[in-house]
Design a protein that fits this description.
By secondary structure, this protein is mostly helical. The chain has helices spanning 50-71, 74-81, 85-89, 95-118, 124-141, 143-158, 163-187, 195-215, 217-232. The protein has a domain at 102-232: Tetracycline Repressor, domain 2. The protein contains nine helices and no strands.
Length: 238
């Protein structure tokens, strides 16, 4: 005699497509769910770690150095790294954000290199000479830094929305070079009355030498030697 118990019927929209009822000799057995495949993780790409960010910044530095802010595109940068543009936007929300990140990284890199070069020396002249030599080494070890620095001047002039970052960076440069000049004041190589003049001179000189290395590296090397001789008082015959 057939059992009078009947299983309730679910509406079509309530059926779980991931549940499969397996036949069983037990009338009252419950259906066992079929293991569901692991959901695919969505969002950032698998290798979206610090290394990927560094690769993007390095590629962006090269692209901005070569083409400038207006002509360089996020697609250009992404292609150089081997990413899609969408993947790049997971790290940087816009081209401006990417440019400012490159700018901040370059400023930090240059300051660290200059600071390390000047640190072992105790006199103003020796510190400045070490910094001048470092501008030449920078162009040799990382030419994209000089190329980016060269492009910044034009980019800031054409794009006012970048000017705030440039102004802040110049203030940070002043802070570093002020330490160098103050070392000269403490040793008596620079008079307190000339502190501001010397500060502006050194900052402008070093910045200009860094920029010129991209287009005319030979001229940069000669100018560095000339500046060192000027400091030593052997360049101009009175």
């Amino acid at each position: 005699m057939a059992s009078s118990r009947k299983a309730s019927l679910a509406a079509p929209e309530e059926i779980d497509v991931d549940l499969v009822v397996e036949p069983s000799p037990q009338v009252d057995s419950k259906p066992r769910p079929k293991p569901k495949p692991r959901a695919r993780r969505r969002g950032r790409p698998v290798d979206s770690d610090g290394l990927t960010r560094e690769r993007i910044l390095a590629a962006a530095r090269e692209c901005f150095a070569e083409a400038g802010y207006a002509a360089a595109s996020t697609h250009m940068v992404a292609s150089r790294v081997g990413l899609t543009t969408g993947a790049l936007y997971h790290h940087f929300g816009s081209k401006r954000e990417l440019y400012l990140a490159v700018f901040a990284e370059v400023e930090q890199l240059v300051e660290e290199r200059f600071r390390s070069a000047a640190k072992p020396h105790t006199t103003f002249v020796a510190k400045v000479e070490a910094i001048l030599d470092e501008t030449v080494r920078l162009n040799t070890t990382d030419p994209a830094v000089a190329g980016f620095a060269l492009s910044v001047t034009g980019d800031v002039a054409r794009h006012p929305d970048l000017r705030e970052a440039f102004t802040a960076a110049w203030a940070r440069r002043d802070f570093f070079f002020a330490e160098v000049v103050d070392a000269g004041v403490s040793t008596g190589e620079v008079t307190a009355a000339d502190r501001t003049v010397v500060l502006d001179t050194v900052t402008t000189l070093v910045t200009g030498l860094l920029v010129i290395s991209k287009g005319i590296p030979v001229a940069q090397a000669r100018a560095v030697e000339g500046a060192k001789r000027l400091l030593a008082g052997t360049l101009i015959v009175s």
